[in-house]
Amino acid sequence: MATSAVCSTTVLAQGVPVDTTTTTTTTAVPQVPTTVVKQKPKVLKGKDVKVVYKVTTTDPVVFITIDDGSTVTPSLARYLDRNKIPVTTFAVSVMLWKHREWFRDRKRMTFENHTWNHAHMTLVSAAQRKHEVCGASQVARNVAKESPMYFRPPGGSFNSKVIDTVAQCGMKYLVMWNVEADGGVVRMAGRGKLGPGDIILMHFLPSLERSLVHLMEQIKRNGLKPALLRDYLT
Ligand SMILES: [Zn+2]
Predict the structure, then answer these.
(1) Within a domain: 56
(2) Tens-place pLDDT, residues 69-122
(3) Residue 208 included in any domain
C-alpha cells in the first residue's frame, strides 16, 4: 500500500477503515455486523425424533445392523473386509471400548448408540437414562471420532421419556428393525423375501459369521445389496 493511502485512512473505533480523502458525504462504508452472532447447536425435542422400522426407498438395498458387540474375532473381520459389507453397528459402550481396536479397523462400519451397558430403558431413573444414552454417545465419539446418529433401545423397549432423552443427546432417529437374522435363520414376519429398505437385526454372537454368509446369499438372491443407514437416514 502507498504511504499516502495509509495516511488518508482513519480507522474507526469499530475497526472499519474509511477513506477520508473523499469530499462526498455518501462514501460507501463496508457494512459489517456490529455484533457477532454465534450459531448455537440445534437443540432437539422429542417430536424431532423419528422412530424407524424400515427405510422408505425404491433402491435395491437392505441395511445390516449388528448389536451388542460381545463377540468379535479375526475371522469375522476378514469376512467383513473381504466382502466389503457395510454394517451399522449398535455396540454397547462397554463392548465398543473393550474391542475398540477391532472396531476401529473396520472401514465400512458406523458406530451408533445402543446405551452404555444395555439398561432396560423404560425402567431406569431419569439420571440413569441420560447416562446410558448421552454417555454412550461420548464413548462412540472417543472410539470413532464422530457422534452416533441413531439410537436403538435394548430389547426394543422405549417410551416418550426415552425418545426425549434421545433428542437431548442429539440424535434424530430411533432405529428399530423389521427383519431378524441371527442363528442362520432369516425371520421376516409373514413375508417370503427381503425387500428394499429392510432393516435387519443381528448380534455379535459366535454364530455371526455363519449367519452373515447365509444372509448375504439371501440378499443377493433377492436382487438386493447391503448399504449403510447413514447414506439413507440423514
Ligand atoms: Zn442389545
Answers:
(1) yes
(2) 999 999 999 999 999 999 999 999 999 999 999 999 999 999 999 999 999 999
(3) yes
Whole-number Å distance, alpha carbon 116 to ligand 1 midpoint, is 11
Q: 85 C-alpha vs ligand 1 centroid, how far in Å?
A: 21
CATH code of the domain containing 77 = 3.20.20.370
Contacts with 94 (C-beta within 8 Å, 6 or more apart), sequence order: 116, 117
Domains in the chain: how many in total?
1
CA of 31 to the centre of ligand 1 (A): 55
Range(s) of the domain holding residue 170: 48-231
Per-residue pLDDT tens digits for 31-44 = 665 666 666 667 89
Q: Is residue 200 part of a domain?
A: yes
What's the CA-to-centroid distance between 147 and ligand 1, angstroms?
19
| Domain-embedded: residue 15 | no
Between the CA atoms of 94, 62, 121 and 76, what dihedral angle is there, to the nearest 10 degrees? -20
Ligand 1 centroid–CA 95 distance in Å is 11
b/e 59-90 (16+ beta carbons within 10 angstroms → b): eebbbbbbbbbbebeeebeebbeeeebbbbbb
Question: 140 C-alpha to center of ligand 1: Å?
Answer: 16
State the distance from the centre of ligand 1 to the C-alpha of 67, rounded, in angstroms: 5
